[in-house]
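Reviewers asked in the last cycle whether our approach scales beyond single polypeptides. To address this, we selected a multi-component target totalling 764 residues and predicted its structure end to end. The input consisted of the following lines:
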Amino acid sequence: MARQSNGKSLWGRAFSNLWYFFNSLKLTIAVLISLATVSILGTVVEQNKPVEFYLTTYPRFGKLITAVNVDNLFHSWWYTALLLALAVNIIVCTFERFPPKWKSLLNHKQEKFDPKVIERFAHSRSVSVSADAAAVNDRVGRILKKMRFNVVSSVHGGDYFYYAWKGAISRLGSDFTHISLLLMLAGSIIGSYYGYKDYRFIYVGDTVDAPNAEFKIRLDKFWVDQYETGQIKQYNSLITVIDHGKEVLTKQIWVNEPLSYRGIRFYQSDYGMAWDRVDTAYIAPKNIKTGVVGAPVPIKWGATEKIPGTKYSVKVVGYLADFAYDEKTNSVGSISADANNPAVRLEIYNGDKLVASPWIFRNYPGIFPAIPADKGVDLVFATFKPILYSGLSVNKDPGTNVVWAGALVMGVGFIFAFFIFHRRVWVHVRQEGLTTEVKVGGMINKNNILFEKELKRITEFVEKGDRSK
Amino acid sequence: MILSLLFFTFSFVFYVLTAVLYAGHWVFKKKWLGQTATAMSYIALASTTLILIFRAAEARHAPFSNLFESMILFIWATNVGYLVLEYKHKQRVIGVFVMTIESIAMLSAALLPYKFKSVEPLNPALQSKWHWMQDLLSHVGLEQYAIGWLDFHVFSTFVGYGAFAISFGLGIMYLLKGWFEEKGRSNVLIDMFPDTAMLDELGYRAIAWGFPFLSIGIISGAVWADYAWGTYWSWDPKETWSLITWLIYATYLHARVTRGWRGKRAAILSVAGFLAVIFLYWGVSFVLPGLHAYA
Ligand code: HEM
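The resulting structure, written as structure tokens, was:
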């Protein structure tokens, strides 16, 4: 595109200068190499760490690294600018180059040409056959057809002229590839604007809201599969989707098998035990004098059960996985989510009367008597059945399908660009006395070796007819 | 472990022998040496195939799940690629270079520490199977061997690596021959190489195979990551290095098609590309931290 500075506004000139800048294949190479080079930095310098990390790991460059966003290189404005330059480069180059290419693909047929052109092609051959032109011409037509060339032919003054071509679609391969890149880029932009990532943990049996959506999900079951060796094989959750009060679908998910509903996907991400409640606590009576402990009684969370052999009934009202007492605030809590020091809080009734509400400890049975007023019976916390939760990554990315569409277009582009070749062949058949001379030449957009072989095949067939292999 | 390691040992010997035979053919120009070398590379291929088959039987899943297994796959793919090349272009000198690369690859696989070699059951994240394939195979009781995005990802990536290894060999040959020609020297061995135009063209053809396979590998990896992690791209070092490698080969293709880079500059780019592949494959696993367990 020529630059015309006269008769144009400042904006017009700026635009045509920009257009000129982006209509450059040198720029393509420069951008590709720049992207490759700076990406290396992003793998050498660990990404997305706190500022202090860079200051201590790289005493000399730490400040610089954070100042120019090398700590978050792939989302920095200048990396984005490079990607944008690539996109604009593709768009401008396609605008400039595609229309003429398309025209020449449509109007390329040459019924009549100067036979001298044939020798000027990078690939050409000629053979003399002792047969008349009509017979040779017949062979040329047959071999071109056999090799699936498209052919236009004509006769001028006893000479035969052929123009043959195939694989023209190969020329569109690069365009498909470039458009596919634009699609993928577009998909990733859509994803970064309209997508989100979130996390939900759900106790078995519970229902929670899906983030930014009108439906709920319920965790029906969670379990871990193991190999015979005990190694973990898979984590599984059985999830039910509840949309406006109706159960619409139930699916088992595991790592690599998400649940997808209305564009929102739920991934098995982790799991654990609840730290603040249990499914069932097992409480056993203990005779303080003899030290004999009776059979543990399973008590469901929130339920009240009689303890056989005593006058008490017990309700489980509290649980802490890693019990700790804070003197300053006079309160209790769990210092971790792991069952290092599990404790349950009981309400102990004698008939209808609440007689005690102690915390008792699985690891320290009897350090505090459960019922201070009763010197004969104590209660011990034997064990418990935990409530499991399943941790789900939740994510929505409406751009993903655009990216996959881009991938498909890229596949088509690659087939065109790398496995189909555009050949154009010119043939001139001329009889001189008793022999006929055949000149064959032409061009291929890539894969010269193949083309040489094909030209050889044509001339051999012309020489030997069906006897050539 | 027994049968696959047995065939591993056989294959190692076979590859070294094949490389020696091709070299012998190159130096002594005896036709029978060349034919034996070709026969030997088919035998090596068969033996490599058996390693993969026995591995699959021992591990009860497709044998692409650790560094050792993926090396075997790389060696297998390179061998297949080379045999196609030899069949089409009948240039046995190239075999000297490719089979040397194969022997080196065998050696590095052999030297891997035990923990990269052992047969392991798949951890949760590696279990992705195509349901349609499981359903199909369950009719014959082989659903364990169904593959999924992960296997597909590894397989096509490694076919790409194989093609790049071949283009690397061709690039080296080009540079050697080009150097001798520039200096105006002649050497009987170098004269045996195909002419530079052919080396250049074959190098390009190898990349024209490698590039789409690497691309399919990257994309199928993204599909799998989308299933496993919920994001198709997370810029971890392995992903980023695959992008870097891909960009280098995209540069090669553009420089060639749009700016007429042929010959020496193209050969240098293809050598650089393969160095990036080696880093992508081994360097990232051992040097940089990341999510990919291997490969
Ligand atoms: C700045 C962006 C880019 C521009 C302006 C650009 C431009 C071009 C042009 C003009 C061609 C030659 C077309 C022909 O021979 O008919 C081409 C070919 C091609 N481009 Fe690009 N390109 C860009 C980026 C990319 C990228 C990032 C890729 C990576 C996949 C790519 C893949 C291809 C392929 C596969 C071909 C065909 C190569 C062949 O035929 O051997 N392009 N590109």
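Chain A touches chain B through 49 residues (CB under 8 Å). We regard this as preliminary and will revisit it once experimental data from Aim 1 are available.
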